[in-house]
Amino acid sequence: MTALRGKEIDSFLARPDPARPVILLYGPDAGLVRERADALLASAVDDPNDPFSMVKIDGDELAADPSRLVDEAMTVPLFGSRRAIRIRAGARNFASGIDTLADMTPKDCLIVIEAGELRPDAPLRKACERSRTAVAIACYADTERDLARLIDEELRPIGATISSDARAALVGLLGGDRQASRNEIRKLALYAHGAKEVTLADVAAVVTDASALALDPIIDGAFSGKVTVMEAAYAKAIAAGTYPGQIIASAQRHAAQLHKARLALDDGRSEGDALDGGFPRLHFSRRTPVEAALRNLSSERLLRIITLLADAALEMRRQADLAATIGQRALMAIAVNARQRR
């Protein structure tokens, strides 16, 4: 099994193994998936914009003819340059193409596959993990240590330090999507350019909550029973190109945290302690709607919501073309449920 973890990932990304040219990047952090894919592909070819060097394939199209992957991977470049193939996985299965490549070693061709969150038994993930020529790399949300390293990395070019309270506040506003977090830090660095130290006031002035990618109004609207707010925020996110599965994944995390807090409340903990235990990094601006949801939703109702969201996530993978509608329907059901008295 070739599934890299921890420090193995950093080592491999720094120096990819030529004997394993097929790289699957998957997970809930779409920004980290894109960032790692961009870095790998930029180092693999001389010009990522050259169509002769970089081949882009849609995963659902590839599923109709998985043998195309082998043909593309084994194609000899006309001018002797290196080649790369970038595949964005969809809802359809092209794992048989990976299985066929397992018996071959493409020369001077890197194959990078970008996917969302994949279950351990997902065909694509299984195919890459068992192949001798492939690796599977999970891309999960940054930990506080990862975010601290990211902050230092982005502030280093302007030669500024960051105060401890500003760092703590900034970490609390980041996470969930690597590219969104990086963009927020870069915006902060531009704002503080010329200063010796980034302060809490600087963070408050320019940084938004990148951890939810503007999903908080959708989630809080649904769980507090504000149907109109939820619908408007959901429509705005979809129009902006947000993948519906990302919204449902955020709702699943929120439901799990609410359930944990609700169980603590049922065990006799104070509302404040229960909330802090379930949401250790809850931003102050969200505290009121989350408190309302905690008071109104019982642990049994939250379990039903968790099941509802899991079913919606599965159905969205099965019917990718209806993902936006399926997500909206699930969130609407939660909002209607939340408006009802216990």
UniProtKB/TrEMBL annotation:
Catalytic activity: DNA(n) + a 2'-deoxyribonucleoside 5'-triphosphate = DNA(n+1) + diphosphate
InterPro entries: DNA_pol3_clamp-load_cplx_C, DNA_pol3_delta_N, DNA_polIII_delta, P-loop_NTPase
Domain DNA polymerase III delta N-terminal: start-end pairs: 24-114
Record has Nucleotidyltransferase as a keyword: yes
EC id: 2.7.7.7
Record flagged with keyword Transferase: yes
Domain of life: Bacteria
Enzyme class: transferase
Alphabetic keyword roster: DNA replication, DNA-directed DNA polymerase, Nucleotidyltransferase, Transferase
Single GO term (MF): DNA-directed DNA polymerase activity
NCBIfam families documented for this protein: holA
Family named by the database record: Belongs to the DNA polymerase HolA subunit family.
Protein name per the record: DNA polymerase III subunit delta
Organism: Afipia carboxydohydrogena (Pseudomonas carboxydohydrogena)
